Amino acid sequence: MSSEPAIFFSDPNERQGSFLRRTFVLGGLTAVGGLALTGRLAQLQVVQAQEYTTLASANQFNFRLVPPPRGRILDRGGVVIAGNRPSFRVLVVRDETKDLDQTLDLLGRLLPDTVDRRRSIIRDVNAAPRFSPVPVKSDLTWEEFARVNLYANELPGVMADMHEARFYPFGGAFAHVIGYVAKPNDRDIEAIRERGETVPEILYNPGFRIGRQGVEKAFDTDLRGEAGGTRVEVDARGRVVAEDIGGSRPAVPGKDVILTLDSDVQNRALEVFGEESGGCVVMDIRNGDVLCMVSAPSFDPNLFVSGVPSRIYNALRDYERKPLLDKAIYGTFPPGSTFKMTSALAFLDAGIDPTERVVCTGGYRYGARTFRCWKAGGHGAMDMHNAIKNSCDTYFYHLCNRAGVDRIARVAQDLGFGHVYEIGIAGQSKGIVPSTRWKREYTEATSWDDDPTWYPGETLSVAIGQGALAVNALQLAVMTSRIANGRKAIHPRLVKSVGGVERPSGAAVPDLPFSREHLDIVRAGMAAVANDVTGTAYRASQLGLGDIQMAGKTGTAQSRDYRPGESRGPRNAQWSRRDHALFVAFAPHDAPRYAIALIIQHAPSGGSADAAPRAREIMKTVLLKDPDMRARIERPLPPEPQAPAGADEGEGGAGPGGEVTGAAAAAPPPAAPAPPTATSGPRPYLAEPPR
């Protein structure tokens, strides 16, 4: 089979035209690209040269923030109660280490206690910004610091330096009122964003601390200061090559905060509490300055600066006496008999005659129930003065419904109960002041009871400081200060100045809505409590400071309901089932200057045995620190009158010519004023001789 020949046609001119077209297109594209490149290079090197020079310089130099020294917190006398101290520490820069795990292994050999915290260290390092030093351990000893520096060449990315750490020189004495500092966490960052504010960059610095609780938290912005910065030169990998000292900016320290507290009184208060639990507040009744605000038991805030170990925090949290809880302003307790001055003022406001007598036989029958007086045998006939002095429950049972719970509640509000005070720190409890309105609103809000009616039988418990009443130590101190002041509704003041700017005085307040006569009657009863030999706090209230005496009131408040006939238990009863002990007082009672309120939670005995002696020791410290009180204590007693010459020539009397003979002649003068007796010292508030 033969195949037919194929015929191909080729046009040289057509091939040449196709080649020329491709050459023209490619050449044009090349020319356009060259022009574009030339134009872009011209733009970068001529038009935007300065801009990129600045960016290149910024890449060459980094600005690393330096936390500022935190502002100090001082007491009224300038004693530092929260300051800063030098501290050696070890830091790790993640991006400068070849192998973080290997680096931590080597550090673990030099600093064995970092092994237990390895997981938290890795978490902090991974969360830190690039090239940011992260503290691995603070408060190194000199030996540890030297050891790390000795092996620094073998530990890439590890450095040791000295910085300022927060320090609380008095430990637990100021822990609750001052608070402590800690590292910012995610919740802190989120809270700032929710307020619509920009998160300060310094908060991401691993060495920065913010305030937690108390004054540290309330004035955190003032105490922080302004962050400084170090300008450093880095290489292409971000590692530090050199420091540009001229471009660095020093940090600005935070402002100092001066409190009205007195470090000596505060330390003494925590000391006298011993192992007991409770709170104490001391106020200057002239201006409202808080000299003492202590809660016991306490804790050491220094533990929280670098991060408290979990086992220690759990122990503090789970201890039944709650050392982390501020019992001076947050914990609330029934006031017990310390509320009877409030009830007495309500009785007087209702027009009840203070000389009206009520016979106490040991109890008061109301309806189907007998309300017992604390004294089983009864007190006999009691008027208002003696009812306060002897703390007679029956007197207040008998008269309380003539005044009514709403009047008692109003007087309580006027004396300072049921309020939260602007003292500069948060965490206060408002407490409860029962009234007909309160019960109605409480019933509607909680469905606690189907009946919102207030019954007269409930007023009996309120009149003696029990029932639904709940107050804190600060409110009790305000009540005592207002009664002692007698004119002004004194407000407490805790912060004296911030950054040198004085805070308002607690004396710039309205007048009290009580008559001077009514307040005198109540103060006379308080003076008798502490200075009449039959008063409930006579033994525990003698200061031994010349003619200076206290006026006070004891209280023992039930912490639970007792079954009929059940004893309140011996001293060694279960702690959580004991009653609370309270004592309020002011001194001197003839010229009031200071007021104190002290609560012991689940006390061994009661107000007169447990609370009053401790309050007396704290008050003595307060008075001895006052120059005017010291001058009064140290002044000589007036000379005793001399018998007329020849009036008595017996032994120990005056002989002829008036000279003293016998044993008295040889006796030296006393070295110090004699302690006060039941009848010594002025008693301007006593309405009648005590019975």
TrEMBL record:
Residues 667-676 have a biased composition (Pro residues). GO terms for molecular function: penicillin binding; peptidoglycan L,D-transpeptidase activity; serine-type D-Ala-D-Ala carboxypeptidase activity; transferase activity. It is found in: Cell membrane; Membrane. The keyword ATP-binding does not apply. The keyword Cell inner membrane applies. It is a single-pass membrane protein. Residues 553-574, 627-691 are annotated as: Disordered. Keywords: Carboxypeptidase, Cell inner membrane, Cell membrane, Cell shape, Cell wall biogenesis/degradation, Hydrolase, Membrane, Peptidoglycan synthesis, Protease, Transferase, Transmembrane, Transmembrane helix. Residues 66-243 form the Penicillin-binding protein dimerisation domain. Residues 278-620 form the Penicillin-binding protein transpeptidase domain. Residues 560-569, 627-637 have a biased composition (Basic and acidic residues). InterPro entries: Beta-lactam/transpept, Beta-lactam/transpept-like, PBP_dimer, PBP_dimer_sf, PCN-bd_Tpept, Penicillin-binding_protein_2. GO terms for biological process: cell wall organization; peptidoglycan biosynthetic process; proteolysis; regulation of cell shape. One of its GO terms (cellular component) is plasma membrane. It holds the Pfam family Transpeptidase. This is Peptidoglycan glycosyltransferase. It comes from Brevundimonas viscosa. The lineage of its organism: Bacteria, Pseudomonadati, Pseudomonadota, Alphaproteobacteria, Caulobacterales.
